[in-house]
Amino acid sequence: MGLTHPVSNLGRTSNAAMHRLFNQTEKPMNAAIHVDRLNKTFARKTALVDLALSIQPGEMVALIGASGSGKSTLLRHMAGLARCDRNNGGSVQVLGREVQASGHLNGNVRRLRADIGYIFQQFNLVNRLSVLDNVLLGCLGRMPGWRGNLGLFNTQENQRAMESLDRVGLADLAQQRASTLSGGQQQRVAIARALTQRAEVILADEPIASLDPESARKVMEILADINRRDGKTVVVTLHQVDYAVRYCQRAIALKAGRIHFDGAASALNPTFLNDLYGADLDTSLLFSDKARNVGSPATLAFARA
């Protein structure tokens, strides 16, 4: 099975080479994420169609595509936050364990989610709690329920939370209410929560969609650093394609719930993006304002395409 993109001159990497690197239809033994023939329908509207992919441990992968293409739906299925169709719904496995199959979640899905950090576009922080308390919530999946209900975090957990905050540059705001932070700071708190969780896989759903260019850069650099230094598998949905090129080795493009392209992010070019986004294409999808101004590697890559 070859690549599914329709553009023949997408880059210098051959179709055969990209197929060997990325487009795996059979589950590798050590896949971090394996999706097999996933189908999802909402009220007769098809969201995902026979979608199959494998992501290896330590990869940083961008999911791109127009609004409604299925990016967020796919990510939620990976985390077990949404169920696939009951009839021929397919399956999702993460870290070798089945998250769901044919509309049924694994009975131990709560334990499985302890290894999956999920970063939401709207941060999902508890505004009335302090920054530190929000980060400590990342410990809940690995501690007894009674301690979690009482908010009894031990010294080791508090230390781990502070180390996570230091990692994202917010240790000095640990006692501040989450509601007082900027959007970029709140997203970094959400990343610190995933670090404290000790997740092996991090799924980030449009983490920079509502952020200014500088805040977006900080968030993406932190995610890339976690991928590079810690070897964590990171999957991020993005609208700004220049960030996908700059920070991700691999890009998977969805169109109408199907995989339209699966290959090296560096192979993306404006011709392909015009085909992918069509009437929804906007220059902001290609280059952020900051990238335009500084002539980033991503900008140059598009210019050469």
TrEMBL record:
Q: How does it sit in the membrane?
A: Peripheral membrane protein
Q: What is its EC number?
A: 3.6.3.33
Q: What class of enzyme is it?
A: hydrolase
Q: Which CDD domains match?
A: ABC_PhnC_transporter
Subcellular location(s) of the protein: Cell inner membrane
**Superkingdom:** Bacteria
Which Pfam family is an annotated match for this chain, by its short name?
A: ABC_tran
Sorted keywords for this record are: ATP-binding, Cell inner membrane, Cell membrane, Hydrolase, Membrane, Nucleotide-binding, Translocase, Transport
- Give GO terms: molecular function aspect only: ABC-type phosphonate transporter activity; ATP binding; ATP hydrolysis activity
Q: Which InterPro entries match?
A: AAA+_ATPase, ABC_transporter-like_ATP-bd, ABC_transporter-like_CS, ABC_transpr_PhnC, MetN_ABC_transporter-like, P-loop_NTPase
| Coiled-coil segments on the chain, per record | none
Q: Which GO terms describe its cellular component?
A: plasma membrane
Q: Which residues form the ABC transporter domain?
A: 33-281
Q: Which PANTHER family match?
A: AMINO ACID IMPORT ATP-BINDING PROTEIN (PTHR43166), PHOSPHONATES IMPORT ATP-BINDING PROTEIN PHNC (PTHR43166:SF6)
What's this protein's name? Vitamin B12 import ATP-binding protein BtuD
UniProt source species: Pseudomonas fluorescens
Gene that encodes it: btuD_10
